[in-house]
Structures are given as structure tokens and as C-alpha cells.
Amino acid sequence: MSARTRELGRALRHMRENIAEATEVVQRCGLPAVPLQVLGASVRPRLPRAQAEFQERSLRELATRSPLGEFVLVEGASHHIPLERPESVADAVRWVLSG
Q1: 38: which strand partners?
Q2: CB 59 within 8 A of CB 24
Q3: CA torsion angle for 89, 95, 96, 97 (degrees, to 10)?
Q4: Is the sign of the CA dihedral 77, 80, 85, 89 positive or negative?
Q5: pLDDT (tens digit, 0 to 9) for every residue of the chain, 99 residues total?
Q6: How far apart are CA 66 and CA 58, in angstroms?
Q7: What's this model's pTM, rounded to 2 decimal places?
Q8: How far apart are CA 66 and CA 26, in angstroms?
Q9: DSSP secondary structure letter of residue 67
Q10: Contacts with 93 (C-beta within 8 Å, 6 or more apart), sequence order
């Protein structure tokens, strides 16, 4: 087993705890007043409607965690927004950097 594989294994082994810790901090403290743009996919062909609606609500709620947050629904994009709509990602980066 390569060193890189072992490193990945260590990172993944603690991922749940890290995500739980980060989620708890964000829920308790919110996000700092920095620009935040959360991108969401408008196309979910294989996802049950209830799951797609839950995901969109979750992303919208995430955007509200920062006083400068905003949610953007990327039309025509599915799960792979950077591949399908790279201009949307570039626009989001520009928006954050200009804030």
C-alpha cells in the first residue's frame, strides 16, 4: 500500500467526526461575515423529488449562515456544476472576490 493511499485512508477514517464538528461549530456560531455563494443544481434526473427538494433547502439554508451569503440555482446543471457550467463557478468566484 502506498503512502498516498494510507494518507487518504486516515483522512476518510476521520471524515464523519470532522464534518460533525464543523457542522456543530457553524450551527453554534454561524459563519463569519464574508461573501459566500452556494451553487445548487437545477437538474436532478435520478433523484427522488423529495430528496432533491431537501438538498435545495439545505443549500439555501447554508447560504443564510453567512450574513453575506447567497444561493444561486444553476440552470441546466446537475451534480457536476464545475464540469457542466464552469462559467457559473467562475462567476461565483468573481462575486466572492469582489465582496
Answers
A1: 71
A2: no
A3: 110
A4: positive
A5: 788 777 767 766 776 787 778 778 777 877 788 899 999 999 988 888 888 888 899 899 889 988 999 999 999 998 899 999 999 999 999 999 997
A6: 14
A7: 0.69
A8: 10
A9: T
A10: none
Cβ(88)–Cβ(39) under 8 Å?
Answer: yes
Q: Which residues pair with 39 in a beta bridge?
A: 72
For 56, counting Cβ atoms within 10 Å of its Cβ (0-12 exposed, 13-18 middle, 19+ buried), the class is middle
Long-range contacts of 74-79 (CB under 8 A, 24+ apart): 74/39, 74/40, 74/41, 74/42, 75/42, 76/42, 76/43, 77/39, 77/41, 77/42, 77/43, 78/41, 78/43, 78/44, 78/45, 79/41, 79/44
Integer Cα distance of 18 and 3 in angstroms? 22
Classified as helix, coil or strand, 73 is strand
